[in-house]
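User: Sequence for histidine kinase below. Tokens please.
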Amino acid sequence: EQARPSVWQMLTESPADMLIVLGIATSLGAAASVWLAWWVKKQTLGLEPGEIVGLVEHREAMLHGIKEGVVGLDQQHRVTLINDQAATLLSLPADAVGRHVEELDLNERLVDVLTGRAEGADQIVLRRGRVLVMNRMPIKRDGVPIGSVVTLRDHTELEHLRDQLDVTRTTTETLRAQAHEFSNTLHTIAGLIELGEYDDVKRFVTRLSDARGQLQAEVTGKVRNSAVAALLIAKASQAAEQGVALRLTPETELGDVDEQLAADLVTVLGNLIDNALDVFRGHPAPDQSIEVELRTVDGRVVVRVRDTGPGVAPDIAREVFRHGFTTKVAEQGGQRGLGLAITRQTCRRRGGTVDVSNANGAVFTAQLPIAPGVPA
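Assistant: Structure tokens for histidine kinase:
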């Protein structure tokens, strides 16, 4: 049996043109290998495979270990990356990666921030009882946009602290209003004494005492919860300094409620009264008054706040509870348009509602179940 020729024999016995073709092919292959190695090294930024694996492991550890939420999006606003904190804060499903943000059951405000329709730094978003601060940064490669990264922080605790500071501020404003009122009263009494009108002094003091006692007696007689009653008395003094009369309706009757419902009522009632007072700051009227009604109907506490201002235009009635909506100029660079949004969130969290209508002024009506229900 004849032995098969070796590769060397085949090469030496091949025609000259075959050797030329083989040489060219070998050269091209070597050149292609060199170019491919250069291209791969360029794409991997000069990193070796082991270094790339280490970077990926470090990236995953950092991404899921930080307290801030991180969401990556492509140009079509599909989720490309999400860490554990973001999934928790936004209540995203496990299959969120690869889906468009509008498919993820997110509210309009949140979608606007994620897609860049709402521009600006430190955007505040409300999401299922949380107050989130979000920032969006576009990503470019060689000057071409390829997506964006959104970071988010949970500021719920800070907002609670701010609410406590607001309570302190309200107390301070109430004390200031009472001090101003007391100063005017003393000046009046001093003037009457200088004139020798002692009988008028007695009648004046008696009338003031009766008026103050009547307000407190009316509030505490109709509202059994001390926190809600204290808020109403404080807001009445604050409104009086502004020249606004705050009064309860004859139908008002609220028994004692649990601590959580009382806290929610203070939030809702305080924001609605503040909103009414803001109306009069921008639109002074001859008869400036706020009417408050609190009563229990079919297992719900109904809160109704009516003002004698210009009312709410029908075309914006649905927008007033959206975060960021306001007809006022921001004061001292602060966030505006958050009070009514928080009011709606508080109501929905208990399974309640809040809406607005017009009746010789704006009428805001909130309904909060006495027993918390499924969040709306």
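The longest helix spans residues 156-194.
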